[in-house]
Design brief:
The chain is built from 11 helices and 6 strands. The protein has 214 residues and is α/β, with parallel strands linked by helices. Helix 1 packs across helix 2 and helix 1 crosses helix 4. It is globular, with a radius of gyration of 17 Å. The protein starts with a strand and ends with a helix. It binds magnesium ion. Magnesium ion binds next to loops. The site of magnesium ion has 7 residues, from loops.
Length: 214
């Protein structure tokens, strides 16, 4: 875990979902790979070729711009619009196959929810995010979800973050972004004046109530 900045007065915590509210390397990998395999099948290329072509695009973007690009944005380089990515994710990803109830996460979020507004911003569609939160047993703790289909823009784009904190009637400087990917979840929120904590997984999230109290 790395704490980049904390707001002087914290009112709202904006969580990433995948690999932040759960740690499951197999599921995290499969979510990406199932879309790449689907793309390969549509284009009549081998899964291996599709994996390397998408990896090339993502590596090239990182070399040129010094930061990582989301899978959805990488797919647009192959003529797959974000709307199409959204449909694939809705039909191809089934979180319940991989994730189970997490009582400790539930206790943690319930505790944080007593002091702060909780929001989640994800590059998955809202319906997929809801299934993920339901599998973890915490869907009722996030009444406002911002997904890829809420704005049509994937993180790191200002709009999904802005919608999240405005829905809590908060200013950026009173918000804290928590996520597992610096370039996608943390860098832009810091530029926007929010706090930011990079986590290695859900174990770090469990420690947030104590950390924020201290
Ligand atoms: Mg993540």
């Amino acid at each position: 875990m790395k704490v980049y900045a904390l707001p002087l007065r914290l009112e709202c915590i904006i969580f990433d979902i995948d690999s932040t509210l759960y740690t499951n390397a197999e599921y995290a990998r499969e979510q990406v790979d199932v879309q790449i395999r689907h793309f390969a099948d549509l284009r009549g290329m081998s899964h291996g070729e599709a994996r390397s072509r998408i990896a090339e695009i993502r590596d090239a973007h990182e070399r040129e711009h010094g930061k990582k690009i989301s899978l959805g944005n990488a797919m647009t380089s192959f003529g797959i619009p974000i709307k199409e990515s959204v449909r694939w994710r809705e039909t191809l990803i089934d979180p319940a196959l991989y994730l189970g109830r997490d009582e400790r996460l539930r206790e943690t979020l319930t505790e944080l929810g007593k002091s702060y507004a909780l929001r989640a911003v994800t590059n998955n569609p809202v319906s997929t995010a809801l299934k993920t939160l339901a599998a973890l047993g915490v869907e009722d703790l996030f009444p406002h979800l911002v997904g890829l289909d809420t704005t049509g823009f994937s993180k790191p784009h200002e709009r999904p973050f802005r919608i999240a904190f405005e829905s809590a009637n908060c200013a950026a400087e009173n918000c804290l972004a928590v996520g597992d990917r610096y370039d996608i979840d943390i860098a832009l929120p810091l530029e926007m004046g929010m706090g930011g904590i990079l986590v290695d997984g859900v174990e770090d999230v469990y420690s947030l109530p104590a950390l924020l109290k201290a």
